[in-house]
Structure of DUF3732 domain-containing protein:
Amino acid sequence: MYFQIEKVILWSRKKEFGYKTIDFDLGKVNVITGASRTGKSAIIPIIDYCLGAGSCSIPVKVIRNACNWFGVLVKLDGSQMLLARKEPEGKVTSNDMMFIRGKNIKIPDRPEKNSTRENVILELDEAAKLTFLRMNEQNESGFDARPAFRDMLKLCFQPQNIVANANTLFYKADTMEHRQKLISIFPYILGAVDANILSKRSELHNLQKELKKKERELEKLRAVSEKWDYAIRSWLNVAKEMGLIAPKVSIATLKYSTCVEILSQIAKEDFNSYGITSEGIEDALVELKELKHKERKLSLELSKNTRRKSEMMQFSTNIEEYRKTLAVQRERLNIATWLKELSQENGICPFCGANHVEDEKLNELLENLEEVEREASGVSEIPIAFEREYSFVEGQISLLTKEIRAVQESIRMLDLKCRKNREQAYTLNEIEKFIGKVQYAEETFRSIGTDGELENEIQKMKERIKVLQIEVNEGAIRKRLEVALKRLERMIMYGLTTLDLEDADDPVEFDYKNLTVRVLDRNGRKNYLWEIGSGSNWLSYHMAVSLGIHRFAYGEEYSPIPQFLVYDQPSQVYFPQKLSMKEEEKELDAKLEDEDIEAVRKLFVTMDNAIEKCEGNLQIIVLEHADEEVWDGLENVKKVCEWRGENNALIPKEWIVE
């Protein structure tokens, strides 16, 4: 994504002073050099705030007291974007923003709110062509939410507390929320996953959820159709008795779906074409007899299982009571063991003091105790087989109860019809009423019991899921990710060759799941960044990784990473004694020792090389103590500002509000 900073803009609270700009070259290394306390470290928070940060990290007091708006002018492909944001006025943040997009934008003397932070973030997401799909539809946490422009900025800033940090490699990755989100979207950043894959993943996830739902529905429908099977056959028997179905049709052998179709035909056709037959009446009576026989058979079976359950419950109760009785006896007889142990020590009775060689009563008590122990051991816990049998019996009772109810309902319908006056029951008027009821019942039976349409839906879903699984191909995604990581690691290794690093030839692995690097030493051990000593080593890996990621992005057909990178005081690791001093003892304009100048120059050489490799599609901003002698002669390194001396800083002295 071509997205580079043209200007940082500050508007003074004092209207007579208007605004101040800091101008940057595109596609170059831009250096702001100067003494401490001149405002260099405010540049990253200002850019971040204007690009939609959730809170304002711009230093309080001098800078925020002097300015009421902050802004950045950004260069995109073929256009510009001006983003200005109001100073929070004592609050954590302000949502008031001014957003302008166009060509040759003129900076206004005074910004006016025309947008909000939320709207600006949407504009930036749109400009970055980011997908609006979640990384993982199965996980509803914010960590797997869709990639956002704000996430990409974590790869663009290396503030003072991060640039040489042993534990944290990226901006804001020292908090759980930002860290986990960055881990989640790294396959997207590296191009192993794109919007097309995420779209198909989303469709696959939704289809799999819907499939489970449909399969549960089908299971329920089949269970319900079994329940209603007796009811629909009763309707058909009544219809057969009335002559609405041919006598030769055997209702007992019909499938449920066929029964529904017959009811449907009865509901549609003219009832006048039907006539009552003796065969139909006879069949209905036979069916009634068979149903009553089945009811008696089911009742006997239910009674048998109910009696079995009662006996098992009683058995379980008796076992528990017997076990409790034995436990009481054991407790009472345990005193015999205690007395035996005491008397065996010296042969003296613990109560009377007499000398007993053998005590018959005591032995008798011990024998009784042993008998109780044997009985208790014979009464073990109720075996699992007993519990399974008990559960089976309960299930049979429930099943038989449902079947009896269904049969009884069928008997009630047939019996009611048979007990009616035959002459009245078989009039055309009565048949007409019956057909009217069939029309209503047929819809009910069809919605409850027919599952052909649902089965077709499920089959189509399964076929589509199979296609999507092939197209998504998680194995291929892992392979693309491995290839991308290898390519990134080669670029990291290239950057390390020109940095002040011990053992620069040691192979490096980028561990995106932990957001760090692992270095393979000569002993074959893989060491994490935090296991490697020296601030200069940490700084070197930070720079090599951050530049490597931007070089990787440039090599992609399209990358949503903005093409700028800001380092805040990378040379700080070469001021160890000065940085450890108390604030009031620090030098405002510390100088590098001669032996460290070459090490810092290597930083600028590495950045200069990265600009060359990216052919102007990368902009680097460096906020530095070191002066121009460190990068002198490097073609792609330009001094933007030098804040040293009287009234030469980010905030002009006349802006300062006393």
Observations:
- DSSP finds 17 helices and 14 strands in the chain.
- The first strand starts at residue 3 and ends at 12.
- Residues 421-425, 577-583 have pLDDT under 50 and may be disordered.
